[in-house]
């Protein structure tokens, strides 16, 4: 079957390890189901995998892709929860959790096999392309906002780095839930787009906000860390799920953190139950993932290049080539 896969690890030039071509179709295994992929979406996790982060060389070649929606072996339209081993279903009871592509072949292919526990019904209100955007970036944003930030309707939230998948999702979800959303971006067009999606205002990184916020959604890391901490009200919460600009800020702001009793919460992905809630939330409210571009699988390299260059706003979706 045709697939986009990591053939080699290159930490400095990750796209050198990306190959497009034929790979073996998934084999049947007890407790697992094979899904015919109708749409899959890119994440920065896929670029990190090409750098060897979470993907050891002995696992190569590895089909990339965490997220997908498609049709399972029984003909049902489904969405894949990409955290494998979270419950013990379909894997060894003592196997640590992992994302697809760390130990098991991913979704950038015509078919993927996952534990049957890992598939959820796709709401009829969502297209395959829309549903395929939800299991990683949108689920991460959902958990950051509604589980870990502890915000309520009417609270204020700053989202750093508008344009990325998680940041975009947080703006849309937060606005739909009645939160006052603010955003930052170095790019004027992305700031304008963030406002169109529901942010009350969008600013250049480091700009002073109208007032301190209840929570910050942080995925940028070192470049925005100090601004994030300084933007919080006393007792506020910073939730971090990534560090695309690096994980060693020049100023950790420790004095401000303890003096103002700020909370710093790490957040990774989300549970199957949270994904189910997210799917229901989108179906009921009319919220839809922001899609930057839909490409056939045989043009996957274009999508990877666009993501690596930071040009995208929203998600890049891959669909079958034929």
> Which stretches are poorly predicted, pLDDT < 50 over at least 5 residues?
none
Strand content: 25-35%
Number of strands: 18
Distance between the termini: 12 Å
- Supply Rg: 19 Å
How does this structure look, described?
This protein has 322 residues and is of the alpha/beta class. α7 links the parallel β15 (232-240) and β16 (263-266). The protein contains nine helices and 18 strands. The protein is globular and about 55 Å long. Strands 3, 5, 6, 9, 10, 17 and 18 form a seven-stranded mixed β-sheet that branches. A six-stranded parallel β-sheet has the order 13-12-11-14-15-16. Strands 2-1-4 form a three-stranded antiparallel β-sheet, with no helix packed on it.
Strands, helices and their partners?
Blueprint: E1 2-6, E2 18-22, E3 32-41, H1 44-50, E4 62-63, E5 67-71, E6 77-80, E7 83-84, E8 98-99, E9 111-115, E10 119-121, H2 128-131, H3 134-148, E11 156-159, H4 165-176, E12 180-184, H5 188-197, E13 201-203, E14 213-218, H6 225-230, E15 232-240, H7 254-259, E16 263-266, H8 272-285, E17 291-296, H9 300-308, E18 315-319
Parallel strand pairs: 11-12, 11-14, 12-13, 14-15, 15-16, 17-18
Antiparallel strand pairs: 1-2, 1-4, 3-5, 3-9, 3-18, 5-6, 6-10, 7-8
Helix pairs in contact: 3-4, 3-8
